[in-house]
Write a structure and sequence with these properties.
The chain is globular and about 70 Å long. It has a five-stranded parallel β-sheet, sandwiched between helices. Helix 1 runs parallel beside helix 10 and helix 2 packs across helix 10. About 45% of the residues lie in helices and about 10% in strands. The protein is an alpha/beta fold and about 270 residues long. It has a single domain, classed as Rossmann fold. The structure holds adenosine-5'-triphosphate and magnesium ion. The site of magnesium ion has 3 residues, from loops.
């Protein structure tokens, strides 16, 4: 899974990344789903340990084009985890109050506390994605944001937050398929938003904006992972495996029990 990690300083070209890839996984969808079920159990155990250990925080950022699978990833990967230890924060177009502050204000307060996992469904990266593509602020302002974001994330990391960022990479054709199936399915139709088509028309501009994000904000302490996401089962595996590898690398421990606990007899 480390294969999908963007090393700091790499110039990312998304045309070189195959959204259909399922590298290293040839056993097919059914086996992948079985593997994911096992990983969910492991993730639940690790989250319990993260909470008990209480020294670390984990931030998971998800970014993608519309229908890229942010919601599905959250559902599939975190299904087995205790809801008390995980929080999802979704970032929509900013309210007038949010706009009256700097763009990191609304993000900072949603960060994980000790022992918590927080998943960002969209994030401060919208402020260099949609904002850049739609010219919502002048270029001289969004240009400086890559540096702000790197400094902000470095501060979080220095203070004990582990950060993982995933870009779920689907193809333009796959998005068309997913939009059509949303329109055809009465249970999914409500998810379709006419504005999604405006974003779709600017696909190439979005790819350029994502390439800038991936090339300029993947750092040793806050790396990006580009996840081939046309196959949902592969996408879920990559995200789950990466979370587990990361949590396993944290040297989490259950706190030692109170002294003398062996002698206690409950009557
Ligand atoms: P869903 O799966 O429900 O469609 P979603 O994340 O696409 O989930 P929407 O309400 O459809 O949710 O879209 C949120 C919109 O808010 C996106 O178009 C996104 O680009 C926009 N947005 C998020 N952050 C910002 C921001 N900082 N500035 C401007 N627009 C933003
Ligand atoms: Mg949407």
């Amino acid at each position: 899974m480390a294969a999908h990690r963007i090393e700091s300083g790499t110039e990312v070209r998304l045309v070189d990344v195959d959204p259909d890839a399922t590298d290293g996984w040839d056993d097919g969808k059914k086996a992948a789903r079985a593997r994911l079920a096992k990983l969910r159990g492991k993730l639940a155990d690790l989250q319990h340990l993260l909470w008990a250990d209480g020294r670390h925080r984990l931030l998971v950022v998800l970014q993608a084009m519309d229908s890229g699978g942010k919601d599905g990833t959250i559902r599939n990967v975190f299904e087995g985890v205790n809801p008390q230890g995980v929080r999802v924060a979704s970032f929509k177009a900013p309210t007038s109050t949010e706009l009256s502050h700097d763009y990191l204000w609304r993000v900072h307060e949603k960060m994980p506390a000790a022992g918590e996992i927080v998943v960002f469904n969209r994030s401060h990266y919208e402020d260099v994605l949609v904002v850049r593509v739609l010219d919502l602020v002048p270029q001289e302002r969004w240009e400086r944001r890559y540096e702000h974001i790197n400094a902000f994330e470095q501060m979080l990391a220095d203070e004990g937050t582990t950060i993982l960022k995933f870009y779920l990479h689907i193809s333009r054709e796959e998005q068309a398929e997913r939009f059509r199936s949303r329109l055809d399915n009465p249970k999914k139709r409500w998810k379709f938003n006419a504005a999604d088509l405006d974003h779709r028309r600017r696909w190439d501009d979005y790819m350029t904006a994502f390439e800038a994000v991936l090339s300029r904000t993947s750092t040793p302490d806050a790396p990006w992972f580009v996840v081939p996401a046309n196959h949902k089962w592969y996408r879920d595996l990559v995200v789950a495996e990466t979370l587990i590898e990361t949590l396993e690398g944290l040297d989490l421990r259950y706190p030692s029990a109170e002294p003398g606990i062996e002698e206690i007899v409950v009557t």
